[in-house]
Amino acid sequence: MKKIFTNLTFWVLTAIVAGALLGYIAPDIAVKMQPLGKYFIEVVKLFIYPIIFLTITLGISGMSSLKKVGKVGGKAIIYFEIVTTLALVIGVIVVNIIKPGNGVVLSAVKGGDISQYTAQAQSFSWWQFLKDNITIQVLIAAILFGIFLSKYSGRQKIIQPLTLISKYVFKALHIVMILAPVGAFGGMAYTIGKYGLHTLLPLGKLMLTVYITMGVFIFVVLRFILQYYKISLWLFLKYIKAELLIVFGTSSSEAALPSLMEKLERMGCSQPVVGLVVPAGYSFNLDGTTIYLSMCVLFLAQVYNIHLSFAQEMTIIGILFITSKGAAGVTGSGFVVLASTLTAIKVIPIEGLALLLGVDRFMSEARAITNFIGNGVATIFLANNEKEFDREKMEEAFKYEEEKN
């Protein structure tokens, strides 16, 4: 019994249930809980950039060959493009089979104001994405500094204090993560209180379709990828279940990103691979987001009874292949990318985005969780591919997590 009450997973799950109940019973009070989730994420985000910088810098400076850095980066980009394209195609196939937009009565669905998203979409550019995406900037700076240290003869004088700083940063993160149940409670209470479960009914078929598709992607595609190296997806999910619940409760993969990086290292992925793949994946390997975007575009076409030819659907996939890469660097990313995509194809009314505002928050959990798992799987796959993976560490980590629970 004592084990349960000292288990972070137990408390996060309890907080999610409590938040949902408060949102349903007392929505006015629940909406006021938003700062709990919002500020928890903001505090965790303070750790993301130092951890990325320290992990990559220390990892690269300790690598025997800089060619290996370029090799890992190149493989990561190829992996990201293949898997996110597969995610897009799966989204298109499932939405064409289930057709969640058929039969939706426009007058029965409450719309919302989309002006802020369309305005951002019109001004979206790759330069703006790179300028606003601090993760990419920190990633590049860390790579350059790591390369400098690897060539500098007196690097140990710099590496030793950086290693010590890294140790204390992770210690501080562990202290902050004790507050994860508070953040999950605030995030879930606000979501249910603000939007209400009743908003799900008119567009429930779309929500169900999105969740089914994410499930197929995780338990078929990602499972197959790990199976290639004889690693159990199920054991990996059990290993990161506390982080998954935090992501679910806060609707943000950022909330557990630093913890994921630490756990991946602990289970046997080398520090350089974790440092390179996870931050890059956060911007370029958004599997859940790409599935969601492809499904929503075709859903709106179905709602407005717009028949899209095979060529038009392929065009949509091509456009989303590019625009989805900016999804992590823009506020209200999903809607901004959707707005820019609809503007580009000029076939589906952009006003249709208003239909999605009510249920978008309820689908953001699925997006965040799929993105989170996808980046974990990518790191494990690439670490194995580069022979930078310690299976003994993995077995010990899985066993320890099992015994802890």
CATH classification class: Mainly Alpha
Order of helices and strands: HHHHHHHHHHHHHHHHHHHH
Question: What profile does the largest beta sheet have?
Answer: none
Beta strand count: 0
The CATH superfamily appears as Sodium:dicarboxylate symporter
CATH topology: Proton glutamate symport protein
Work out the helicity level.
over 70%
From the alpha-carbon coordinates, what is the Rg to the nearest angstrom? 21 Å
What is the distance, rounded to the nearest whole angstrom, between the alpha carbons of the first and last residues?
11 Å
* Tally of helical segments: 20
What's the overall average pLDDT, rounded? 83
Low-confidence residue ranges: none
Please give a structural write-up.
Helix 15 packs antiparallel against helix 19. It contains 20 helices and no strands. It has a single domain (2-404), classed as Sodium:dicarboxylate symporter (Proton glutamate symport protein), CATH 1.10.3860.10. It is mostly helical. The chain is 78% helix and 0% strand. The longest helix has 33 residues, at 66-98. The protein has helices at residues 2-5, 8-25, 27-31, 34-61, 66-98, 115-122, 126-132, 134-151, 156-177, 180-195, 204-227, 233-239, 241-250, 257-266, 271-284, 287-303, 310-323, 333-345, 353-385, 391-404. The protein is globular, with a radius of gyration of 21 Å.
